[in-house]
Write a structure and sequence with these properties.
The chain has helices at residues 2-14, 84-90, and strands at residues 16-23, 41-43, 52-57, 63-70, 78-83, 97-107, 120-122, 129-132. By secondary structure, the chain is α+β, with helices and mostly antiparallel strands. The longest helix is centred in the first third of the chain and has 13 residues, at 2-14. The protein is globular, with a radius of gyration of 14 Å.
Length: 133
Amino acid sequence: MLMGATSVIQAEAAAQTGKASYYKHGARTASGERFNPNGYTAAHRTLPFGTRVLVTNLKTGKSVIVRVNDRGPFIKSRIIDVSYGAAKVLGITATGVATVKIVPLVKTAAAAPATAAPAEAVAENSGEVFSLR
């Protein structure tokens, strides 16, 4: 029981709240891969490439899991830039910017989604299970 409580505390410590924006143009990302505007990727200043992040629009409650593959945002008041595909899921394409909460996820042993604890999220279309960091 203590282990689960520790995970939630670590997740809250790693979580950030702030402004997110989106981008849909670019050729290559800072990680070297080709940018896919319809993918579920993001730019973050410090998280390692490949880190999965749960991004939640605080106004609408909509969430998406993105993979960090780029650096940015380059506007100081923002904490993350998501791809256009992720922005559509979050519902921020009309406004361009939204207040979000981001939580880095860490891969755990596979578990059935029906028995997943509240501190876990299942990546859409991948079957991977992640715990909040």
